[in-house]
Amino acid sequence: MLGSGNAVASRSVPWIEKHRPVSISEIAHQDEVTRTLVTAVRTGNIPHLLFYGPPGTGKTSTILACARELYGPDWRAKVLELNASDERGIKVVRDKVKNFAAQVVAGNGPAFKIIILDEADTMTREAQSALRRTMETYSKVTRFCLVCNYVTRIIEPLASRCAKFRFKPLAPQAMNERLRDIANKEGMPLSDELVASVVGAAGGDMRCAVTTLQSAAALGGVAALEREEIAELSGAVPPSVLAPFWAAVGARDFDALQRAVRDALAEGWPVDGLLRALLTTATEDDALTDETKAKFAASLAEAEGRLIDGAGEELQLLHVGASMISAA
């Protein structure tokens, strides 16, 4: 475990920030992206960028690493990072973004600043349209990097002005190596079996894996935890939570389905985790035909899309269950 003295302070720092890659070469399992960006950074010829892909695949870490290599120790003065899910209205674009974009670039390095808009797919269409105009006006002195999970939610006039880079879920081997490196730096012993449990529960999401590892360390170390406890730390939904849901589907009992959905939500399980667990269970069920699995997957996709648009969680889970009953 961590040593004494600075141990408490060290544990209080999120490991995902403490061990964030500081150079492009440290980004794991995104070779096609990093090869292109290394050349762009070396020449100083950076276009507007659009990074998209699942959570925890290194999108934000990559653009921050680019900024460090472009600007050196003073990179923070030339980078504005906003979480568009919190500040996604047109007023933010007109005020914060436009004011920063208009500033004159001083000092050494490239003659442009970088504005990072994380979770840009949550911005309103009006804000995205205003952002397009701002990108055109200040393109000589500012580069924009849009980071999102769903590229289809970025309006075409905005997406077409950016070089697009897709980030894929991390391979288990890459996650294994990174977790062992972090554990080694933290003085934390790991067994092969439980590292595999952390990697499996994370599902290609390095942020989730590192956070789970830190949570395990705070509870006495991964070596002291069972596979089920690791899954719970990662936020994965255990099969027991979904058992009443599947029982109601099998019995074609909508009232029981409604109770199962309400109970799962009342226990605090995140709806995205419930949807992922339902998909995993359904695809691994040999009793279901491929056609039934395809219909169920389509229903889950529809529900996820509606949830992103602000639909109610209970209603969407009920829709998924009802679709499964009708398809069975």
From TrEMBL:
Query: Record's Gene3D superfamilies?
Result: 1.10.8.60, 1.20.272.10, P-loop containing nucleotide triphosphate hydrolases
SMART domains attached to this UniProt entry: AAA
Q: Which UniProt keywords apply?
A: ATP-binding, DNA replication, Nucleotide-binding
Give yes or no: UniProt keyword ATP-binding.
yes
Task: Decide whether keyword ATP-binding is in the record.
Answer: yes
PANTHER family for the chain: REPLICATION FACTOR C / DNA POLYMERASE III GAMMA-TAU SUBUNIT (PTHR11669), REPLICATION FACTOR C SUBUNIT 4 (PTHR11669:SF20)
Q: Which NCBIfam families did the record assign?
A: PRK00440.1
Please report the name of this protein according to its UniProt entry.
AAA+ ATPase domain-containing protein
